[in-house]
Amino acid sequence: MEQPTRFPLEAEVTLVTSFQDADPMGVIYHGNYFRYFEEARRVMMDKIDYGYLAMNASGYMWPIIGTQVKYVKAIPFHHEIRITAKLTEWENRLRVDYVIYDAQTGQRMCKGHTMQVAVEMASQEMCFASPKVLLDKVEHWHRNGNIA
Fold first, then answer.
1. CB under 8 Å, gap of 24 or more: what pairs does 105-110 form?
2. Per the domain annotation, does 4 fall within a domain?
3. Residue span of the signal peptide, if any (predicted)?
4. Domain with 28 in it: what CATH number?
5. pLDDT tens digits for range 61-102
6. How many domains does the chain have?
7. Which residues of the chain have pLDDT under 50?
8. N or C end of the chain: smaller count of CB under 10 Å?
C-alpha cells in the first residue's frame, strides 16, 4: 500500500530588523531573536488554523518549557533576515526548529528551537500528550498540505 504524501508543516517570514531591537553596538540584542522565532511560528500555526486564539478557544494554553539557541553571526539593525520555522514534534509537545538567514546572501545567522506543552485551561493541568484538536490539525496538514 502506498503511503500518503506528508507535507512538512513549516513557514518562512522575511523582515527588516529595527533600531529599537539593537544594543548600543548596533547589533540585535540576543533576547529579540525569540521575537523573530515567534513570528515564524505564528505564521506556521496559522496554516493549520491553530494560532493562539484557536488554542485558547480549544481550552488549552501552550507555555514555552524549553529553548535552545545557537548564535552564529551577529545581526545588525536595519538588516533583512529570513526566518524559517518547522514543526518537528507534536505528539507529546510542540517542538519548533528555527533558522535565521541573511535574506540577501542566504548565510545562516542563528538556529534554535522552542518546546511547548499543552496545559488544560480549566484544570491548569499539564497534558502528557498533545490534545486531539492539535493532532487532528497536524494530521490533516500532513495528508493534504493545507487546511482546506
1. 107/73, 108/72, 108/73, 109/71, 109/72, 109/73, 109/74, 109/75, 109/81, 110/33, 110/69, 110/70, 110/71, 110/72, 110/73, 110/75
2. no
3. none
4. 3.10.129.10
5. 999 999 999 999 999 999 999 999 999 999 999 999 999 999
6. 1
7. 1, 148
8. N
